[in-house]
Write a structure and sequence with these properties.
Layout: H1 30-42, E1 49-50, H2 51-60, H3 65-78, E2 81-86, E3 89-94, H4 96-111, E4 123-128, H5 135-147, E5 151-154, E6 157-160, H6 166-176, E7 180-185, H7 204-219, H8 222-226, H9 232-246, H10 249-252, H11 267-280, H12 282-294, H13 309-314, H14 338-352
Length: 354
């Protein structure tokens, strides 16, 4: 499912640390699949999985072996994964920063697709001006505004129906350094044929089509899920895909006020269908992940636990930040070398911010 806005990864990277989540590509990317897979079964514990097991699980989802290995390597360089080697075996787990980011993102996905809060009829307007030689900064700002639920009414003028939070304000200040103005108010309708309604900043027809495509894709599978006929690799593949697809909706439809939307808006039916498929496949998918990981370890795999939508709303994280598979092993884990990370960031910056 391609976003009509061509937005990047919904999990925000505000530049405050070395963690760089993967860029959202058209379609499903190996890095996105790998990140979703690890989050779905190890987010609570940050359990380590053998690299061979991760590759095996990704190839079952249609990723090539080379693509799976490249995805793991790039996620490690980004700071999303930490690696450890014992003899000839290498293992990877989510970094603390990535686990916190994904837990927050998972919560946001579910809470952002609930019934919208009452709307006071006002709009928050973000106006900015950046010189042409700061094109990368402009693109980073636009990406951040998308993640915050804003859309461009005009070039350099973005809007949202909701208040700008304190955290969002701080993030924008880091990116703009005084080149942005924020204010809130009601639209003064001119009555002219050229008067553009603020809701037109979003492509409502395109969002409707994406909801309809999602419902068409997953409704037919639901009876099979409910009757337990989807298991093994098929359960893992479907669960990863439904999450990788549904997680884009909060940015496409950031709780737009129902008063401004066509009758029968499909946000709630899509959310209910997602929950039914995602939760319904949790147990068989977890069992299969355990079985695959077990083929590459000498002992029973620990820390593999599928979470549900209720867990995502509550906040999926281990309070201590350390799962059973991590105890006593921190000394063997490595994050990317800072110098190498800076070199790669410099080399890739233009592509990452498009």
């Amino acid at each position: 499912m391609t976003s009509p806005f061509h937005i990047e990864e919904i999990y925000s990277d505000d530049g405050s640390n070395s963690l760089r989540m993967p860029r959202r590509q058209v379609g499903n990317s190996p890095q996105g699949f790998a990140m979703t897979l690890l989050a779905d079964y190890t987010l609570r514990t940050r359990a380590a999985l053998p690299s061979a097991a991760i590759v095996a699980l990704l190839t079952e989802s249609g990723v090539t072996t080379a693509g799976a290995r490249t995805a793991i390597s790039r996620l490690a360089r980004r700071g999303v994964l930490e690696g450890s080697r014992h003899g000839r075996r290498s293992s990877y787990r989510l970094s603390r920063a990535a686990a916190a980011n994904l837990s927050s993102g998972g919560n946001w996905i579910l809470t952002s697709t609930t019934v919208a809060a009452p709307w006071d009829g006002c709009w928050t307007i973000v106006a900015f001006s950046l010189p042409q030689d700061r094109n990368a900064q402009r693109r980073a700002l636009r990406s951040q505004l998308r993640w915050l639920g804003y859309a461009p009414l005009y070039d350099g003028l973005w809007i949202s129906p909701y208040e700008l939070t304190t955290r969002a304000r701080a993030q924008l200040e880091q990116l703009t350094l005084g080149t942005v103005t924020v204010f809130r108010g009601r639209q003064n309708v001119l009555g002219s044929i050229s008067d553009r309604a603020p809701i037109e900043a979003w492509d409502i027809d395109a969002i409707t089509r994406h909801y309809a495509e999602f419902l068409d894709r997953w409704t037919s599978l639901l009876p099979l899920v409910s009757s337990g006929q989807v298991d093994g690799a098929a359960a893992v593949r479907a669960r990863t895909e439904v999450m990788d697809t549904f997680r884009r909706f909060p940015t496409l439809d950031p709780q737009l006020p129902v008063e401004l939307l066509p009758p029968g808006w499909l946000r709630q039916p899509a959310r209910e269908l997602f929950a039914a498929v995602y939760d319904g496949l949790a147990r068989p998918a977890e069992q299969h992940v355990r079985a695959v990981v077990g083929r590459f370890t000498d002992s029973a795999p620990l820390g593999i636990r599928a979470h549900t939508t209720a867990d995502l709303i509550a906040g999926v994280r281990d309070d201590a930040g350390v799962g059973p598979a991590e105890a006593g092993q921190d000394g063997g884990w490595q994050s990317p070398d800072p110098a190498a990370h800076c070199d790669e960031l410099t080399a890739r910056a233009p592509a990452e911010l498009t």
